[in-house]
Amino acid sequence: MGKHMVSVTASVPACEPPAWAVLQRQLFSVLDEAWRVFEDRYCHPEGGLRFDGVLEGRDGADDFYEPFFNWPMLYMLGGSDDLLDASKKHWNGITRQLSEAGFLVDEYERGYDWFHQGESLLMFYGICAADPSDDTFRRRALRFAELYLPTSPVGNVDGPRRIIRAPHTGAGGPRRGVDEAWAQEYGAELTNMKPYGLPLEDLPGIDTWDDLADPANARRMGEAMNRRLGDGDVAVNLASTSLIANAWLYTGEDRYRDWLVDYVQAWQDRAAAADGVVPDNVGPSGEVGELHDGRWYGGSYGWTWPHGLHSVGAVAVVAAMNAALVTGDDAWFDLARAPLDRVLEEATRGPVRDGESSMASTWRQRLGPDADGDLQLVPYRKGVHGWFDHQPLQIAFPAWIWWCSGDPQDRQRLDHVERECGYDWTTVHAFRDKEEAGHEAPWLAYLDGRNPDYPAGALGMALGQVARRMALVHQDASSVRTDDIHWWQRLNPVVTEILVQLTTGAPAAPYNGGLQQTRVRYWDAGRGRPGLPADVAALVEELDETRVGVQLVNLSNTRERRVVVQAGAFAEDGIDHVVVDQLDDGYPGPNRAYRADEFTTSTRRIDVHDNHLLVILPPGTRLGLSMQVRRHQFTPSHPTFDRYKEKQNDDR
């Protein structure tokens, strides 16, 4: 990278600001009000949640962090200055709260599955990315990652066997077994688990859910779960690679990268032995199927129970993203491609039906009336009787694979899914789910040039979701919860999915523990912090493997704004050159005229040969920026503004 920062000054007037730009800045403004109301209503001054109930068992830590999971992301995108400190305050407050409840050891999960740990850590990863200069969080990141290295004395990892020793692990080491209540008795009264069916399908005399009404059967199921679902490695442990990658982004130390790569390679090798599909269980001795009669399916949070592709597909994507991040090699995505191709081979057609889809309610809310149409349904789960639990495919999985690899075959997979899915990819459905995701299809159609109204429509939808969340807060009669620990995440008014898509050119991070990768990241050069400056709106309108097209608009008619445009979330991509538009003539015209003359613009090329450039936006201007990029050109790291502020501007 050079000693000088290439800069370009906008000159094209934004005399008729696009609707998307106005709506985007309105969304930032509304969100900066909304999180304060939520905080005042539901949080103690020191940051913890107002909760007077009792926490028991192993489950629950994630539900305390999740109400704030995307607050650091809002700050990184351009949210208010004090949102970073608020995010840290709430992370610290929740951590103290859970430590007092016995759920954490030395600020980290005592021992639970990585489906939930991944959810818990999204907020932490966001803080690390938002402020890598915070030494306290840096030390935490390294200490937490150390728990999942073969050299750690807590013993979570068996290095020679290339496994994590149990489905439940953490600062307390391997925590074998399942939740203590389930281990004693897993009975039919657990109606919230009924949609997912039997955790183990091969116990004699237990063939249906109703068989668990017999106390003896309930005890047998609990004992078998404790023994067979509570030991050895499972596929969802691949989410731990994000913890390792996060530490590597701080230090660049080989020991983090080497274990991450070795662990993912171990699962890649196991997948190769199972016709490419990643298995979900490895026994204590390192053998696939050791606790499941040789079957590659049946492990905890695996192909059979409870979520199948929803969990296994997600962690395969997460692991591939992390391995590709630390190596620069996109071949790792074979781990995530094979499961999708396998379930697509088994696809059927029909509407979403209760009893046939364990997530029917979710899909009805995501698709609205389209859920009753003739849809492509893929099996999410595999059991002793074959593939089952047919649902629409989560578009985020193939979208992330194509987004990361740029491989034409990955694009062909996406195109095939669109042709066969049975619903219109240009429709923007109005919902905000737990994962803050699900609008990948209309966004992809926009990038293809087939959905030009998506930016304004999606931002309007997002504003509507904030309004609904705030209405739910206002109608809530209490500020203290004693029972439902999922309450707060259903009211969190911060919505970032659409902002991430439109400003950074990326889908929302995989919810079960993914790091947020982007094609573009912004820095407010005036305030020396992450995010877009005040009054500035950004839109990624073109995207492929070698090019990123961005529109930047300064809506202020009185203030100049300066923004550093960085290629890649971790400054890993290079910008070869940019093509920008510029004003030729005709604006603002003579002061005696009642209207501005028609003005003309042209384009010019500017060589960059770096991973960033400075854009200067005088009042009321816009800039079209087409960047020719090279993926994986630089070593990724957690960047800070310090790397930019000392550079001398080279105005072009």
How is this structure best described in words?
- It is a single chain.
- By secondary structure, this protein is an alpha+beta fold.
- It has three domains: 143 residues, Immunoglobulin-like; 419 residues, Glycosyltransferase (Alpha/alpha barrel), CATH 1.50.10; 49 residues, no CATH class.
- Helix content is 37%, strand content 17%.
- It is built from 19 helices and 21 strands.
- The strands form six sheets. The protein has a six-stranded mixed beta sheet. Strands 2, 14, 15, 17, 18 and 20 form a six-stranded antiparallel beta sheet that branches. It has a three-stranded antiparallel beta sheet with strand order 9-10-11.
- The longest helix is centred in the first third of the chain and has 24 residues.
- It is globular.
- 53% of the residues are buried.
- The mean pLDDT is 96.
Secondary structure: elements and pairs:
Layout: E1 4-9, E2 12-13, H1 19-42, H2 61-65, H3 71-77, H4 83-100, E3 104-105, E4 108-109, H5 114-130, H6 135-146, E5 157-158, E6 163-164, H7 180-184, H8 215-228, E7 233-234, H9 240-251, H10 254-272, E8 281-282, H11 309-327, H12 334-345, E9 348-350, H13 360-367, E10 375-383, E11 386-391, H14 396-405, H15 408-421, H16 440-447, H17 454-475, H18 497-504, E12 520-524, E13 529-530, E14 536-543, E15 547-554, E16 561-567, E17 574-585, E18 600-610, E19 612-617, E20 621-630, H19 642-645, E21 648-651
Parallel strand pairs: 1-19, 1-21
Antiparallel strand pairs: 2-20, 3-4, 5-6, 7-8, 9-10, 10-11, 12-13, 12-16, 14-15, 15-20, 16-19, 17-18, 17-20
